[in-house]
Amino acid sequence: MDDIHVLNDAGAVEVALDPIRTSILDALAEPGSAASIAATVGLTRQKVNYHLKSLEAHGLVEPAGERTWGGITERYVQRSARHLVVAPDVLEGKTPDPNDIADRRSAAYLVAVNARAVSEVGSITASAAAGTRVPTLTVDTVIGFKSAEDRAAFAAELQSAVADLAARYHHDDGRLHRLTVSSYPKPKEES
Length: 191
Prior knowledge:
Elements: E1 2-7, H1 10-17, H2 19-27, E2 32-33, H3 34-41, H4 45-57, E3 61-69, E4 72-79, E5 81-86, H5 89-92, H6 107-127, H7 148-169
Parallel strand pairs: 1-5
Antiparallel strand pairs: 2-4, 3-4
Helix pairs in contact: 2-3, 3-4
C-alpha cells in the first residue's frame, strides 16, 4: 500500500467520492474481505462486492491475498494508498499556472505553485514502475519570527543561499529538478 495516491482521473475521483464507496475505503484501513467489510459498513456482501469491483477498476483498492476454508476461497483486498489526493487539473482540465499570477508573494501564487507540484509529482509517480522511488527533496519546518523585519531578513538570506547553491550545482546538460520554497503562517492547532 502506498502512502499517497494522486487521483488524476475524473472517473476515479467520482468513484472515490461516492458515500458508500468512501465508507468501504474507510473500512479498509486493514485488508478485508467482502464479508468483513459488509459487516463493518452494514451492507450485504453482494453490494460490497459490486462496489469493490468499481473501486478496483479505478485503482483505489488492490488484491491482498486469499484465504481458503471449508471449500470456500475468500478474497481479500486493501486500499491502494492510505491517503487519496485529487490532482488540481482533474477539476478544470489544467493546473493553475503560477506565471499567470502577478503577485509572487500572494496566497494565490503559493497555491498555484503547490498545485503544480501535486500534478507534476502525481503524474511522475503514476508513470513510474511499481516500487520505484522517485528522487525528491522536501524540507518542512516551523520557524517563529519575532518581527516582520526578521521574516524579511530570513527570506533575503534564504533566497541568496538558494541562488548560490543553484548556481554552483546547475548544469545545463543535467536532469532538471524543480525547487520550490514556501512559507505561510502556520494555522493555530485546535485544542
